[in-house]
Amino acid sequence: MPKDERERIxxxxxxxxxxxxxxxxxxxLRRLRTLVETGQPHIRELASIVLEVxxxxxxxxxxxxxxxxQRPDLxxxxxxxxxxxxxxxx
Length: 90
Fold this sequence. Notes:
This protein has one domain. Helix content is 70%, strand content 0%. The protein has helices at 3-20, 26-36, 41-56, 63-70, 72-81. Helix 1 (3-20) runs parallel beside helix 3 (41-56) and helix 2 (26-36) packs antiparallel against helix 3. The longest helix is centred in the first third of the chain and has 18 residues, at 3-20.
């Protein structure tokens, strides 16, 4: 598998993992900011969405409910990108 493709998959899994955690930590936020600067548009988009989610509700408990009330646009972005599934696996 080409290096770029392997990195993309690893970054995607990393980003999905942040939403699965009970809390998106400051360390996670620093890493997400780094990923926003990557050359891969899809990874930039996913990292940017998760950064916005963390700004609204860094803790997982009732996160989707809060997003539905306060940021329906962000909830729609989670759904559109498949990130919403990170709340349901594991």
